[in-house]
Amino acid sequence: MPRNVTVDELKAKAKELRLNIIKTANYAGSGHVGGSLSAADFIAALYFKYLNVDKDNPDMFERDRFILSKGHCALAYVPALAMAGFVPMESLEHFNHYESAYGMHPDSRKIRGCDASTGSLGHGLPMGVGMALGLRYQGNTTSKVVVLMGDGEQNEGSVWEAAMAGAHYKLQNLIAIVDRNKLMIDGPTEQVMGIDPIDKKYEAFGWHVIVCNGNDMQDVDRALSEAWAHEGKPVAIISNTEKGYGVKRFQGKVPWHYGSMNSDLYKEAIADIESL
Amino acid sequence: MAEGTTWTTYDANKMTSKEIYGKVLAELGETNDKIVGVTADLAKSTNIGNFGDRFPERLFNVGIAEQNLFGVAAGLAKTGLIPFASTFAIFACMRGGEQIRTDIAYQNLPVKVIATHGGLSFGPAGTTHHCIEDYAIMRAIPNMTVVIPADGFETAKAVRACINVDGPFYMRVGRGFEPPMHDNEDFDFEIGKAMMLKDGSDITVITCGIPTLQAREAARDLEAEGISVRVLNMHTLKPIDKEAIMKAVVETRRILTVEEHNIVGGLGDAVAAVIAESGKGCAFTKLGIPDEYGVIGYPEDLYARYKLDSTGIAETVKELLGKEIEADEDWDDED
Fold first, then answer.
1. Among candidates B115, B257, B118, which has minimal Cα distance to B174?
2. From the candidates B19, B66, B178, B260, which is the catalytic residue?
3. List of chain B residues with pLDDT < 50
4. What CATH number has the domain bearing residue A113?
5. How much is the ipTM here?
6. Nearest-CA residue of chain B relative to A63?
7. Catalytic residue flag (residue B217)
8. Does domain B17-172 have CATH number 3.40.50.970?
9. Which of A60, A133, A142, A168 to mutate to test the interface with B (most CBs of B within 10 A)?
10. Are B4 and B30 within 8 A, CB to CB?
């Protein structure tokens, strides 16, 4: 069950997470800053209010599961796990370094509290369907399985194979979040390969759809609260966001899908986030 | 197998390997509630449907969606279950190949991929349904165990043994209809340990899967002509039994590999690598599909075309016996 945490507290966590994203990118030398910043509010709300996970017992069967299907945003995920106490904060200093457990894409066998290795897009929702089925078969009716996907990722056919199965099996314990930041590596999604109307697509596949502003914590909280309570169908949250949200130079800019910062830009990025 | 359980529900003379797979899996499900099944609209064709008939709530059909099939299997395993995932070999190793590699093997999950209709066994269906690439693909995946049983009795033993494999497992069987090689289940089967079906001193045939019976028949025929052929059933392609291979190299000095697979990347190459790394030389030939797509035809005709039947194997043995090998004076000291 979600914990009693205020929107202001979650906002503070999201700000702290964004700062950690920039610091980690700086330690690593470069990183997927754009999609990590756009998804930061949802990740913060999940880890600090909604997900039932225990840093002292990361494998407990009754926990909620979280799959970062947009695995390239480990840059946001590992800092969140560090802030939640699953891995030491010092882990961030070794991100992407030689033999580090913490790289560009998360490895579930090396990262404490990480439920799935991801990085190849379109793999998270099928694994989420499997987890949701497996939990239900074993009599677990309380745990949620949350899958965070990218919007470019919606191009992958396997997403829709899993969307079909999630509805077919009426997986009310499954929540998919689409980080709709509208950009992918080669440009705007609607130019590279259009996905709109993405909400109607999930609806047509038999999902309950919630649309929200994924960079407005109040709206994020509303969407997750509704998703947690919904019964009878899997839930898709279309989270409208801005890629790079929080750092003015990155916001809505295609090249900041992945990049590295010099020291001036690093300071500027930190200052931008501090002033949020 | 649970104490006291008996396996009398199948008769290998009347049932195909995949039918036996379905029956044995259903039996295993009685004593192990962690076992679940997943398939992609091939419950009937792969016979995992037998398990589903017994345990409808434990078989998940994802429809014609092989990427989802193996992703779902990985997710099920992540919740502590032991999923058996079945489809045709060609769709397992390629259509869902990345999910097998990244979702299942990379995470070292105990998913049992039981792939049917392997090799040329679905002959008339043509190249889209033949699968002569799976050994190469599956053995190149870290953490993967690869087993190719010779008949239904071995399939039954392999299905039971794979429960204890701590990690991903790939097993290929045919479409069925091939005759059994064993008379019953009264033989030792250990994953990773080759089975010597017949001892011999002139040459060793190393094989797996459907051609194994043919190799044993060829060896018996050749015995009558005074040629002593050892036959090794290398049912486990990975981890491969290096010891049995090197014993054969030292004792017979001529090795023929026979496989229902492309000669590139399969059993022959796995055996060749073991020999090459040992530093010992020997006469060596790989028999398989010669890096081309199979034609349409009944499996028995295709096996004959590619010399995977007893006649073709015997012919190739004789050719290999005629090959010269360099003398090595120190050979006897090195085994």
1. B118
2. B66
3. 1-9, 333, 335
4. 3.40.50.970
5. 0.97
6. B79
7. no
8. yes
9. A133
10. no
